[in-house]
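Researcher: Quick one. two chains, 371 residues in total.
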Amino acid sequence: MIKQESMPFGGRADRIAVRCEDVQIAIKKKPILNRVSFDIPVGSLTGLLGPNGAGKSTLMRLLTGLLEPDSGRIDLYGRPAGAERLAELSFLPDRGQLPAHLTAGEWLDLASGLYPDWSRVREAELERELGVHREKRIGALSRGEEARLQLLTCLSREAPLIILDEPFAGVDMISRERIASAVVAEMADGRRTFLIATHDIRELEQLFDRIVLIGDGEILGVHDVEELRTNGRSVESCYREVFS
Amino acid sequence: MPPIRLWTIEDFAIDPSRPLYEQFVEQIRAMIARGELEPGTRLPSVRETAASLRVNPTTVMKTYQELERLELIVTFRGQGTFVTQSETAIRSSRRQMAREAVNRLEETARSLGLTLEQLWELSREKE
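Model:
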């Protein structure tokens, strides 16, 4: 069932940001992930695509070290994943966990002290690009504004691996566009690697260079997106073939 | 500084089931051919273009590389990327595009069992 197409960057081990090998996990005896294996090349923007309940969030929590697999192996840049690797990745969880009583500016001041790799220069640039207003209270932000502030928090750090869980859920169109533009601008120098989980592919279809399809806890395909298009297929048609 | 041309995705008609860079190359080539992108126009950087079109930077890089190979754009280190000033290069690209168009038409004619000339005549024939 697994289709592994050739990798865009030659696939050498030192060019792999994330490698999962036969990862399995059950939560409360319910199997969530079954023999999950895939690679993410350094500098790529990979979409982790699948319907709700496919296991995307669990997989992301495993990558960040917030959970441990029952069996199998997860490597980040050639070394085992785990809580002690948190400094090397920047994670945007699927639900807002920012302190509601602070203003956006107060939160950013706090965050800049929390993260050793925080760049105030990047923070200022991203604040402008994403249109974040410092004086607004977080509790009063719309879903779209909050998503932009979350992304700003993620990208102001210099971590090489960025993991975004459903960055578009419930977000208005203009916020989506600003988020997509910021992500693209961020990866232009090729040093950062992005993994974005979503069940909503339209907004990001043109951004992905690689997609990993996951359904019912299993990997149902790994594709190089330009290779799909060379064969006359779109991300959307591929998604439909696998999931409908 | 010459004028800079900023793009939005609305400037392009994109088919998601064909390689994106191919489509950007075709459509930018056509913009240059019809003079909409004038010789010497400065193009935005890869980063700016990727962000404004919301496509993968690799796609923009491949597009620019291909347009450079076709000698339609030139990059000067530290100054940016520009539409060529060379009329010969633009003329040769237009000729190439004309040939490609005729080839496609010839194929259509062949599929109808006609030559190009016969196809033209037939289409002009009065009822």
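Chain B touches chain A at residues 14, 16-21, 46-48, 50-59 (CB under 8 Å).
Researcher: Thanks, that's what I needed.
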